[in-house]
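Bench notes, afternoon.
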Amino acid sequence: MRGKVRRLFSCELHLGPGHTEETHFMVGMEFDEEYYVLWKDAEWSEEAGDAVAWTPRGNFAEPDVWRRLLDAYLRAAKESEGFDGSEFTSLVTSPRGPLPKTEIRAALAKVFGGGR
């Protein structure tokens, strides 16, 4: 269960020929406020948002915690899913969101290489 969350970014996630999901990545504290969490909510997922990275509260301050959770998720997606970064297209962020679009793109470039 989640507490208050904010959208980190949304994108089209290309998962293979003819398979694209509108995907939202959200950040916030879980319900008991013991962990900072990055959730992935995909249109074809049966869950209302899967926790894909988390860390106990107090380890890092905002916005650094959001950078670290995004980095951890992207590295895991690269390793376990074989992602190369091209899967994340049509990025959208909120004007006053947790991280600006430039930082999201920098995180993608850091993990996958190149300028995304």
